[in-house]
Design a protein that fits this description.
Elements (H helix, E strand, L loop, with lengths): L2 H9 L11 E5 L2 E4 L4 E4 L2 H4 L8 H11 L12 H14 L3 E5 L2 H17 L7 E5 L8 H6 L3 H4 L9 E4 L4 H9 L3 E6 L2 E2 L5 E2 L2 H13 L3 E5 L23 E4 L10 E5 L20 H12 L3 H18 L5 E7 L2 E6 L3 H10 L2 E2 L1 E3 L2 E4 L7 H19 L2
Parallel strand pairs: 3-15, 5-6, 5-7, 7-10, 10-11
Antiparallel strand pairs: 1-2, 2-3, 4-12, 8-9, 11-12, 13-14, 14-17, 16-17
The structure holds pyridoxal-5'-phosphate.
Length: 391
Amino acid sequence: MSELKQKDQAYVAGTYKRFPVEIVSGKGSVVYDETGKRYIDMGSGIGVTSFGIADDAWIAAVTAQLGKVQHTSNLYYTSPCARLAEMLCTRTGMKKVFFCNSGAEANECAIKVARKYAAAKGEGRATIVTLWNSFHGRTLTTLAATGQDHYHELFQPLTPGFRHIEAGNLEQLKEAISASDTAALLIECVQGEGGVIALDPAYVKEAERLCREHDVLLMVDEVQTGNGRTGSLYAYMQMGITPDVVSTAKGLGGGLPLGAALLGKKVENVLGFGDHGSTFGGNPAACAGAISVLERMDDAFLAAVCEKSDYIRTTLQNAPGVEAVSGMGLMVGIKTTAPAADVVRVCMERGVLCLTAKDKVRLLPALNIPQGVLAEAIETIKTVAKELANV
Ligand SMILES: *Cc1c(COP(=O)(O)O)cnc(C)c1O
């Protein structure tokens, strides 16, 4: 093992099972390891580097801001923060933005908004409903929101006030939303970590109707699905709903830590002075990068995301060793006959970096991945899926 890997294992907390690869550089959707080996990056840092590695426009935007002021605290105004908030509101119809640094923090903000909104209606109304198999983050409260018991076991007691229901089950939905203690429903339009499973739009639409009827907040976790990933700016836009709160992060900053909770009309003034805050939230360099990311996501760009998604689907669907393809846009789950971890390992040996989600191979490539590079990666995945399935 190299000196670097030994050092990392000796000193970095052992929470990550790393692949035996050091990523040293890259450009766009291609990265290189310490030996100079080339890989096509089909994970983009778990859906973060929306325009790929070392993207020129993003570097220019971030470095220009770094040369002016890299951080000031939220005691003062800075231009990128206000401009990004305006951009997010204009493009979504939401009214206000709270900036933070990660997906979990964006959900923490959503949860605080829901609790304060509910508190104004009286006691015992603070329960937040989430779905089994969801993923909302690793802080103790977002862990409580996450509907996967195996994340919970070792960290009791978790924050109280969450109830989980089965995705797609209309009866459970109706019962949960109409319960007198329910404050909000929090959903992912496509469950990401849970296995790249899209919710049925009819179910989401019915959830919206029930939430309106019972004055329950509809909160959508767009941490993974947001910022162009599914072929629309946010995935909820394809479901025909208007959320009260949208949380997002991952691809928003294009590679710098940035999260946001977008607040709709009903809750735009719920948070007041001192109710919430973050030292780094709205950092000018991170926001400048996000502006560069969002301003390039026009209709033509999003249409190209959908085209690449169609290409992946048509190429892999019914391919030998591929049992199903799920997801939306460039958030793709591939159920392979061979175990997903084996497919990912062999793809890596052959120069393609993929992710897994539960029992699936998961792809979250940069949204601007060139078609030729994408085709090369998909051919490798297709070949490996076939070889390992022995078909
Ligand atoms: C990744 C993710 C989170 C957590 O984001 P962090 O930035 O790791 O805190 C929350 N929700 C969803 C849907 C995610 O995919």
